[in-house]
Amino acid sequence: MTSARVWLLDVDRDPDAGGPTAPEVGDEHERARAAAFADATDARRYLAAHRALRLLVSSCTGRDAASLVFDREPCRGCGGRHGRPVLRTADDLHVSLSRSGRWAAVALRTGAAVGVDVERARPAGALEHLRPDVSPEDVDVDVLRAWVRKEALLKSTGEGLTTAMSTIRLSRRPDGTRTDGRRGTVHDLESVADVVLAVAGDGLSRPVFTDASPDVLSVRP
Q1: pLDDT < 70 stretches in the chain
Q2: Would you give the DSSP letter of residue 173?
Q3: Which candidate, 201, 175, 12, places its Cα nearest to that of 117?
């Protein structure tokens, strides 16, 4: 499958609407991670995002959300099991999840890895001090936009932030996508919400995008 499906979710909506609650479908790893948050809002948003991921996978596969088992890839930096989630199934369905404040993005793709990143928008120039670490090669690109593109790409390969973004050079193709020529293709996705969003993967064609809507967490894509 060359394409992917991507959803943007408002995790501050009623967590009990449209199906089982996060604790009912979450696993021990997710509950332990949530308990480690110092801020209760962050913990609730973390669980809500993972609940949405499970409900979307359930909707696409027909599997019960609470029965889904996710492994975590080992971190390439420290070896800890907190890398990207991997669905333990024979369906060859690849998933990616990103959170920023009240927003979460989920990407699903069959047959090949996918990476998604979402960040709340900032005023122009607000992150300019990070440019040397993010995108020293292109002063015309907003730093946040460069960050989101590169993080989506690194999530798709499993490298995550163990690879310095400053070492990645993205070039623009005639169709508007970006690539570093080796890792894959990056698509910008435009949303009605105040976020910056990108999805990436090897050979990835234009994703099917479902923007934030009242029924997203009920999983009626």
Answers
A1: 1, 14-26, 77, 79-82, 90, 214-221
A2: -
A3: 201
